[in-house]
Amino acid sequence: MSADYKEELARLQESGRLRQLRPLAGRQGSHVQCQGQELLNLTSNDYLGLAGDASLLRRFYEGMDAGNLLEGYGLGAASSRLLAGDTDLAHQLEQDLALAYGRPAALLFNSGYHANIGILPALLSKNDLILSDKLNHASIHDGMQLCRAAHKRFAHCDYNQLERLLATYRHHYERVVIVSESVFSMDGDVADLARLVQLKKEFDALLYVDEAHAVGLYGECGLGKAEEQGVVADIDLLMGTFGKAFASIGAFVICGQDIHDYLINHSRSLIFTTALPPVVLNWNRFVFHHQQTMGEQRRHLAALSLQLRQALQQHGLPTGGDTNIIPLIIGADRQAVRLAAKLQDHGFLIFPVRPPAVPEGTARFRLSLTADMSWPDLQGLPEIFARELAVSSRGRTGGGDTR
Ligand code: PMP
């Protein structure tokens, strides 16, 4: 390896920013095995607890049509959807999605990342403008970088600033797209979709909402925050992923028919990649229907999240948001890394989240609760965390490393 890569890796290690892969095994519900230890998995996006639901998986496997194993459940599409990789399965899933959302069309992508890097560059040209929430996910950011359109970012959920930007710049551009997550991935707070809809209407803009952390969790049918807030029909591009609450891979965008047809012709991350395998399409359809019946689990998860957030606050801990994603802001990268190791000793699997995934100086834990957890799993955490944070902060002010 050339010296400059080595030096950069050493620098990352020194600053507490070195990322490493860590294999997990032995998943049982919300618990996993890590280096021989059983841990409560507080870092998973398997929000409905479906990935480890053995009886659901068994039902899926038992439902496989033995006469149709290769076509219906094969492991490789072996071609892009625009060539020989398209199947009835993909169309059925898209029809089900469009019907559930009550919108003209749905289009599948291979992941949320593919969707977010493929939609904006396809739809926008150099005469257009993107207005994006500052805390939007890296994939949205990357999509904007691939675009010929101009872009500006507004302060997180600051819709007055967004309104000022629209008032100033709307008439300079042909199209303007407002982009926001609905549930923000690192802060667990929620966009005011009704206000975004009002602004998009007032300024004749398009609205693109990333519901990656909301599908499966909100609304009677688990369609997301747009369903809960009653604004599905007003969102021009609603993106949801199968990779989180739906325990799979793949993503979809709900949109109008023209945009759907246009994306098929212009979205490079759809055109120039192999289609999702048939088995995944079948599982996605199965899970999408199954999750619509999971209102009770959604309510359980919301109540559990509230309970933990309140307990953390009672211990004076720096948290925020109001979903099942609960941030605990620590600040310094190295302290976050040390604390994560300490919490692992107590049986909690928590990965520290550091810049550039979050803004400088806001390294944190991102606790993500899942519907298969219960209060006894979590009740010890606030006290343990408060104690370890106090010890680690003393270590920092004294200049020592506590671990
Ligand atoms: N959007 C947001 C807000 C995300 O948090 C993520 C993944 N962390 C993605 C999109 C990408 O989704 P996927 O994992 O399906 O690629």
Q: Which structural traits does this protein have?
A:
403 residues, alpha/beta, Aspartate Aminotransferase, domain 2, disordered C terminus, binds 4'-deoxy-4'-aminopyridoxal-5'-phosphate
Written overview of the protein:
- Helices cover 41% and strands 16% of the residues.
- With 403 residues, it is α/β, with parallel strands linked by helices.
- The radius of gyration is 22 Å and the shape is globular.
- It has 16 helices and 14 strands.
- The protein folds into 2 domains: 13-48 and 294-394, Alpha-Beta Complex (Aspartate Aminotransferase, domain 1), CATH 3.90.1150; 60-291, Type I PLP-dependent aspartate aminotransferase-like (Major domain) (Aspartate Aminotransferase, domain 2, 3-Layer(aba) Sandwich).
- The strands form 3 sheets. It has a 7-stranded mixed sheet.
- Helix 4 (88-101) runs parallel beside helix 12, helix 5 crosses helix 10 (257-266) and helix 14 packs across helix 16 (381-397).
- The longest helix has 20 residues, at 295-314.
What is the topological layout?
Blueprint: H1 3-14, E1 25-28, E2 31-34, E3 37-41, H2 54-62, H3 69-73, H4 88-101, E4 105-109, H5 112-123, E5 129-133, H6 138-145, E6 150-154, H7 159-169, E7 176-181, H8 193-202, E8 206-210, H9 225-228, E9 237-241, E10 251-255, H10 257-266, H11 268-271, H12 278-291, H13 295-314, E11 325-331, H14 333-345, E12 348-349, E13 352-353, E14 363-368, H15 375-378, H16 381-397
Parallel strand pairs: 3-12, 5-6, 5-7, 7-8, 8-9
Antiparallel strand pairs: 1-2, 2-3, 4-10, 9-10, 11-14, 13-14
Helix pairs in contact: 4-12, 5-6, 5-10, 14-16
The structure holds 4'-deoxy-4'-aminopyridoxal-5'-phosphate.
